[in-house]
Amino acid sequence: MTTPVENDENRYDFRALEERWQPVWEERQPFRSGREGDERPTKYVLDMFPYPSGDLHMGHAEAYALGDVIARHWVQKGFNVLHPIGWDSFGLPAENAAIKRGIDPYGWTEDNIAQQKASMKRYACSFDWDRVLMTHRPDYYRWNQWLFTRLFERGLAYRKPSLVNWCPKDQTVLANEQVVGGLCERCDTPVTKKKLTQWYFKVTDYADELLDDLETLRDTWPSKVIAMQRNWIGRSYGADVRFRIEGRDEPIDIYTTRPDTLYGATFMVVAADSDLAAELANGADGEVREEFDRYVESVKNASEIDRLSTERPKTGVFLKRYGINPVNGERLPIWASDYVLADYGHGAIMAVPAHDQRDLDFARAMDLPVRVVVDVRDEDGAALPDPAESGIATAGEGVMINSGSLDGLGKAEAIDKVIAELATDGAGERSVNYRLRDWLISRQRYWGTPIPIVHCDACGEVPVPDDQLPVTLPAAEGLDLKPKGQSPLAAATDWVSTTCPRCGGAALRDTDTMDTFVDSSWYYLRYLSVGKTDGPFDPADVARWAPVDQYVGGVTHAILHLLYSRFFTKALRDMGLVDFSEPFSALLNQGMVQMDGSAMSKSRGNLVRLSEQLDEFGVDAVRLTMAFAGPPEDDIDWADVSPGGSAKFLARAWRLARDVTSEPGVDPATGDAELRAHTHRTLKESQELVEGFRFNVVVAKVMELVNVTRKAIDTGAGPADPAVREAAEVVSILLSLFAPYAAEDMWSMLGHEDVALATYPTVDESLLVEETVTCIVQVKGKVRDRLEVPPSIGEDELKELALASDGAQRAIGDAAIRTVIVRAPRLVNIVTA
Ligand code: ANZ
Ligand code: ZN
Q1: Which reaction does it catalyse (predicted)?
Q2: pTM over the 0.90 mark
Q3: Mean confidence (pLDDT) of the chain
Q4: Of 240, 273, 356, which is best to mutate to test ligand 1, by the most ligand atoms within 8 angstroms of its C-beta?
Q5: Residue set of the binding site for ATP
Q6: Residue 166 alpha carbon to ligand 2 centre in Å
Q7: HSE-CB for 404 with a 13 A CA cutoff
């Protein structure tokens, strides 16, 4: 046992506590999860790992405080909890900082990690420090490469030329989701397009499964995240329809979700930036060609979201070409516009302005005809105003009109019928479309995992064999890391020239590096077998721990990171490497920490420094404040909370343990019954509240228990009562989830060791008999009886009891009862005739 308090026994001194307990925990490592022969059932709690771009900030402090509540609770509930941490240490922040300062990203990254690690230890997270991983180390990214080659062999990693989002400042490719409002997510530079040959992962092969499996997460993931995943994948059902084009041998396909409206098509639109548009423009006269080129140039920089917006004024160019509607042979003028996307469906549409708002906006802007083919009515059966006049397209359901053989049918029948007719003519068929695109993983940057492919003139793309992995990054020294449109690795000519693993001839290494989302897509598996040198992870470890029971992190990763991890997991399953389909069984998203109503930032001048808060109030007070501020999903405004108040509360709690005079192990059965009841109620409720993520309410319950115990010490049972000891021990056990230093010190004053490993006490249900309240029974306004009832009694039950009571029976006599007014639990008023 450690020596009890040496400092001023009457003062709660958070600095002394931090200094005392940090080295003790460092030595004991209470959260080591890999011990041989540990028979406890397992839980895997995972916090999203940080970028090492500086010291920990308030956002980290919130996330790790909350994740820790869950992890520590499961330890006390008797589980062998795996709660690891590591660093997502490849990526642009490190590289840009290195370029700015002219230093090596490796050293910069390692320094930041060392600083963050020290801060995390001070912050007393229950991390298993034997399992740390860092994605920039070759012993990690070697397995990125290994997995890449496995995906390559299965056709899930491939290269293709395409128009990609390009940030002219960072000089790198961006995924769609890294483009926010047309700007680079990292540096706010307007994003442009560039044609490049890039590596992709074939996420779309799993589109259906990624969508359908969300159903299995319905009860354990936030519904908002599930909706975001669903929208991102964006599955829709419709038809491909073939239109002949005058003066072109090949027909073109369009995708529509409303083939029932084919008779309402009055023009066609092709994506302005598609090859098809360029080709059609070529066949037109020179004037059109010029106008088209100018138009394409002007729309190049618009983001996908802007392009699809109904708010945006519609623009376009008439290509002076015509398509033929397969259902009625009508000639439809073909336009090029940016509101049609090149890489969705077929990059071409039939426009039905009467029933599609964007088509209607375009038709009105360009003075094109509008034809109603669905008779849409309002709730009262009245016809809706003509879209051509009102400017509002009628997208609802109704009876088909002006539609030949479809007239009189409803939407579903019309769709079935027209598809059947198209199919007999070979002019169309059912089809499914997804908004989801394959994942563009190549980056033209230095600080990432080199793509393990060798390009050989004779053999093509050859994966680097396992025994030649890792392909380590060439030293940064001597390389110009400044972005210039091609990867800085290309300048490392010694590194680039190699021999082909297949034919032994001269060959070149691929010079792209992988998107850092690759690193974080499977890191949860590497934690299970950190240090393993003959594979990315051990099947036995996977069987023991995976999948993750509880994942904790920011909602900023609600789409991509989760989608990519889910994709990896499914691909690994199909390779026989794991036997489950979803990586994260449950998900908790914490809110953001703000200051004075807005996100913290240096430029806004409202940045709160974590280190300053820790120095002023202590780790425990900051952690407690994070948990107490509100439900975890809500944002916290640091201006509205009180770490000073938390520190005062902790001092009150700590003094309870100091005041207890009974011996450890004393039987609480003889103690004050009322206090015991309160203690056990707190235990019972807290457990349910922790498991329901209502951490703020748990803190409130502990505060209440501290007050009740203080009263018992000062004016009730007294400090020697065994129930007081029991209460103080429970305070210390519950408090350890939020304020580990104060809790450990209390636990030690109470004569024990390692509060983190204390067993969550068994709730004594016999102590939980409910209190009662007095209910007044009136007859015609006069009090006739009093009943002792549980506060939670229902209205019906209370009414029965009141009517049956002796006093009421006597007062009612033979009179008929007119009404009974029940105000549970305190009043029942019976009105007789
Ligand atoms: C005719 C029509 C009539 C349409 C109507 C809608 C309503 P989702 O549900 O997102 O899959 N579309 C097809 N390809 C497009 C592209 N590359 N860029 C922009 N829009 C495209 O949307 C499918 C609908 O979006 C399709 O159905 C098509 O317009 C349009 F009353 O065809 B529809
Ligand atoms: Zn070769």
Answers
A1: tRNA(Leu) + L-leucine + ATP = L-leucyl-tRNA(Leu) + AMP + diphosphate
A2: no
A3: 93
A4: 356
A5: 602
A6: 32
A7: 14
